[in-house]
Amino acid sequence: MDYNINKCIPQWNPHSMMHLLKQNLVSELNADSIKKIGVSRGARTDRGVHALCNVVSLKLQIDQKYCSSMTNNKLVDKWNIDWDLLIQELNSQLPSDIKVNAIKHVTQSFNVKHQADQRMYNYISPSFSTVDYVQNICNQYLGTHNFHNYTSKKEYNDPSSKRFIQDFRVQNLNFHNENYLKFTILGNSFMYHQIRKIIGTIYQIVQEKKDLSFIQDTFSQQQHSLYIAPQQGLYLREIKFTGYNMKKDIPQKLETDFKQQKLIDAFEDQLIQYICEQYESYNIFEEWYKEIQKHKQ
């Protein structure tokens, strides 16, 4: 699992492979292509969007220095690996805003993209209405709807345009005596720009005093050009593997323990601080909405 506050640093790049090479976790023969070690991510984010906790699956070769004992039995030796030492040395090589939190064994056929059955995102925005009213708008998105207007290159009749939103909540957030809104949205999967267009539409409804029925219109076959909220406020919060964890023949459950959760929470505090400071310094939301109004004239 890794964290990334996006300061124009890609989440997986040639430098990431070099860090694995330094720790003898991949061979030089396989280091020229991420396909050879089966790299796959649990979620992809839009350009400029943060990832608090993503999950990456890949095949590693473990150097003997990380093994507390060697029996030449792979089934036994894999449980004798000092993962804490390995994670510590990996993190010492990584930038301060990218960290490995845990490494876990999975089944041979494991596919992180397909096994992930829930993804949670957060969006931080300057406060623009009361929590109760914004929550009422959020509730309109719960359930299964056709989101073809919330992405690009998707037709209404495309089955993949239908997405299920399980939970969508908003709460107040205060930073440096300024009020913000923190959105939490949970679903099976999300399309390109979908969450940012949802936030943009909520903002549009409040600012332009639109009726809530506008949201139902966006689910219809009619084409709508929806506002895309700034990318700086969005971050991937968590990926869940509920179905996978219920299987009986898995090596380990993909869950975070108390110690790992504390690290995630601490990093989230840093991330929220970074986002709010960006809003304060550059008036991102105000400038974004001004630009939209300029193009509408």
TrEMBL record:
Coiled coil: none
SUPFAM superfamilies found in the cross-reference section: Pseudouridine synthase
Gene Ontology biological-process entries: mRNA pseudouridine synthesis; tRNA pseudouridine synthesis
Keywords: Isomerase, tRNA processing
Pfam families: PseudoU_synth_1
Any GO CC annotation of this UniProt entry: nucleus
CDD domains: PseudoU_synth_PUS1_PUS2 (cd02568)
Single GO term (MF): pseudouridine synthase activity
Active site residues per record: D46
Domain Pseudouridine synthase I TruA alpha/beta: 138-241
Residues that, per the record, bind substrate: Y121
InterPro entries attached to this UniProt entry: PsdUridine_synth_cat_dom_sf, PsdUridine_synth_TruA, PsdUridine_synth_TruA_a/b_dom, PsdUridine_synth_TruA_C, PUS1/PUS2-like
Similarity comment: family membership: Belongs to the tRNA pseudouridine synthase TruA family.
Entry protein name: Pseudouridine synthase I TruA alpha/beta domain-containing protein
Source organism per UniProt: Paramecium tetraurelia
Phylogenetic lineage: Eukaryota, Sar, Alveolata, Ciliophora, Intramacronucleata
